[in-house]
Design brief:
The chain is α/β, with parallel strands linked by helices. Helix content is 44%, strand content 19%. It contains eleven helices and twelve strands.
């Protein structure tokens, strides 16, 4: 993953672009009927159940929109919530509260849904050594928020993007002329460009596992992709402590624990971010 400083810049960029997109040259609905001097207060009302995520992001949005806005946090990120709970109160200029409202709700509803699904998967892995990973299958433009939500839900982040880790998948391997060639070319590239990036290599069968292991000192993790249970167990046995292991490929809530019991270190799931239903949250004036 990228550094915290880089991550913070990603979040800031999301806020700036989202406010630009939503507000444009002004929130004319509010400007038309609410005096600039009017002060108000609103509550973030939970109308669903799950894991709350995005409170810290909401604070950043309110601070960007108007430093005069004050937040009274009642429930922190990562908490389990139910219908009727109040996550926080925000008070200050009424126009500013309304300007920030939609971005706060859109982000928190989706982040909470992702955190809730992640926590569900984490619970399925209880008692195993396996950790759940997200993927790059995220909503364009808000990846930082979705990966943040995975962490809040108890999961782990995979690479952030194409630039912070090497992942040699089937197409890379085929275009490079094979596994060994792809790894050798990658090692040479990293040396030439003076980059220190971890290398993950995908295997499609046990024969490819064996070939990757011939270069195991250069490989951080082996991606055991679309294997059945028995072949996954055998792959883990062959790899041993030479590399970390990751299972992926259509793993769902019905199969995830069985794959974990094969002994893999990680299971990656795009469903954490691409297949969720937003939690119902509202910002109501009080």
């Amino acid at each position: 993953m990228i550094s915290q400083a880089q991550f913070d810049q990603e979040v800031k960029g999301i806020i700036v672009n989202a406010i630009r997109e939503d507000v444009g040259d002004g929130d004319h609905s509010s400007l038309a009927c609410i005096p600039a001097t009017a002060m108000g207060k609103a509550k973030l009302l939970v109308k669903d159940k799950g894991i709350l995520a995005g409170v810290a992001f909401a604070k950043a949005v309110f601070a960007y929109v108007d430093p005069l806005l004050q937040i009274e946090e009642r429930i922190p990120d990562g908490s389990r919530v139910a219908y009727g709970d109040i996550a926080f109160y925000v008070s200050g200029p009424s126009q500013s509260i309304l300007k920030a409202e939609r971005l706060v709700l859109n982000a928190m509803q989706r982040m909470s849904a992702i955190a809730t699904k992640t926590a569900f998967f984490v619970n399925l892995l209880d008692g195993t050594k396996t950790q759940i990973l997200d993927t790059r299958k995220t909503t364009p433009g808000i990846r930082a928020l979705e990966k943040w939500a995975v962490k809040i839900g108890g999961g782990e982040n995979h690479r952030f993007a194409l630039y912070d880790m090497i992942m040699l998948k089937d197409n890379h391997i085929d275009f490079a002329g094979g596994i060994t060639q792809a790894i050798q070319k990658t090692v040479a590239y990293l040396k030439k460009t003076n980059r220190d990036l971890k290398i993950i290599v995908e295997a499609r069968n046990l024969e490819e596992i064996d070939e990757i292991l011939q270069s195991h000192t250069d490989v951080y993790r082996i991606l055991i992709d679309n294997f059945n249970y028995e072949d996954t167990k055998e792959a883990v046995r062959r790899i041993g402590d030479l590399c970390l292991t990751e299972s992926s490929g259509g793993i769902n809530e019905e199969t995830i624990r069985e794959y974990a019991l094969c002994g893999v270190d990680y299971i990656s799931s795009g469903a954490l971010t691409h297949s969720v239903y937003n939690l119902d949250l509202s910002l109501k004036a009080v």
